[in-house]
Write the structure tokens for this entry.
Amino acid sequence: MHLKVLGLNFKTTPVEIREKFSVSKDEIKNRLENLDEYEGLDEAVVLSTCNRFEIYAVADNPYENSLKKFMDDLTGIEIDSGLYEYENRECIKHLFEVAASLDSLVLGEGQILSQVKEAYRIAKSVEATHTVLNTLFNRAVASGKLVRTETGIALKSVSVSSAAVELAAKNLNGLENKNALIFGAGKMALLVAQHLKSHGVKKIFVANHHIERAVDMANKIDGEAVSWENALKSADNVEVVVTSTGAPHYVVKPEPVRELMKRREGREIFFIDIAVPRDVDPEVGKIPGVNLCNIDDLETVVDLHKQARREEAESAKKIVAEEVEAVVERFKYLKFRPIMADLSDRAEKIREREVRRFSGKMHDLTDEDKKVIDNMTKMIVRKLLRLPMMKLNSSAGTREADFYAGAMRALFTEDDEKIAL
């Protein structure tokens, strides 16, 4: 059994590659429901966010290609460059760092922990996880929470939404008394709007496919809802446009923007596309007067804050290292559980059979006598098993582990049921 993760993230691939790996929850769920089609894959969890796509799996070594096949089938894309693969301890360490937001574009951001929990919830709901990944993800989530409560990494972090607004402020020499248009009315869009307000933006227009959602968000920020179709017509006097929708295709295309720039008579406008897949056609950035940035461009803003969080990150790494060691130690013993359970079950069956055989011959036994005999025989079995169980447990993680595991299997195979007792 091998614990593995196969994936890509913002460090290994640009947004134009990552957006191709944007997979819906329903697609992930459907593929996980058919996990048994992939030989050697016993368990799996798929983590899909705007900055990463990863598959955590329990796989038999001879079938390691099944994991790549699973990824290709899920995404419909065959890719080799930009992928990373970690096994066992390195896989555990990677997940714990992800859950603790130590591997995020924005160090210390809180959204990734809820995304890890949701990825695990989906896999568990279709029984794609069992003992190993249940243990791993429960511990990873607990570790991520511990990092956030025991360190100040979350308090000193910037978010994607705040970084986007800072980038706009930097490019426009501040946002005081400027106007903004936001495409989208979800959680991220609302956070962007709140950050824009805190930077002194005068008016915010909100566009969404469902106008009622645009109205609801506009009411929360004292903005103005506009229809999706006429959104760019509201941008004649707007300095910054932020897009954050879940659309699978471009929602801002070149031609309407060219028309917009004609009406603006050359006055510059700043587009920030923080969606994955991207909302704004890259060709828009080539139009004179348009400055277009996407989520990968936020790294320049994030870098400015890294020094303030470096000390907290070091504390977080120490917690993660301790948590990784704890779960690695637990996994050492996990592999012996089936053997130990099988040995205990077999011994208990034999004990029960002999007690029944003996009790059938002693008709004058009282209930109290039967209770004493039952307790006595249980204690005999427990004491007989104690030494082999201790040997098996103490060998976990040592060179002798495979020897003792093999010896137990050889001594307590199905053949022993054929022995006349």
In short: Residues 415-421 have pLDDT under 50 and may be disordered. Residues 135 and 330 are 9 Å apart (CA to CA). DSSP finds 14 helices and ten strands in the chain.
